[in-house]
Amino acid sequence: DNMKKLMRQFVQVNRELLRDFRLTGTGTTCSMLRSEGLEPFGATVSGPLGGDQQIGAMIVAGEVTAVFFFRDPFSSHAHIADIEALSRLVDCYQCYYGSNYRSASAILSFMHGNLQRRMATGTRCSIMKPLGLEDLAESVQADYKSTRAAALMRSGLAAPSG
Fold this sequence. Notes:
Layout: H1 4-18, H2 27-35, H3 51-60, E1 66-68, H4 80-92, E2 96-98, H5 101-121, H6 136-155
Parallel strand pairs: 1-2
Helix pairs in contact: 1-5, 3-4
């Protein structure tokens, strides 16, 4: 909650860039976005009431490309386990993650530049990936999935399909 003021300032400074993206957030964040003239979709409940998990589900479903969650380095959060789970999903699914004003500004600027190039050229622009690697999330998850499949095979259960 101590970071809400800084998040609002981020939105105010970057309002025109943010307008070009499909925004969502927890209930409190979506209320703030609306008060700043933006139109988020699908507001969730407040973070501590399950909103962080709802955002996590959107990440898993491929509906979220970036997360801006300004963490307060000087106070504890009642829902720290939720925040850590959300951060882990961001890493598992290789989403952009801005946890402070500066990193969020850089990410937003980069993403907006990519969006402008895509609109101008009709080609998708993102980041440079290693040759032969099409899906960063799949690359990150591959070892985990193979160890789970091996464990199931050892136990005599069928391997999962996904």
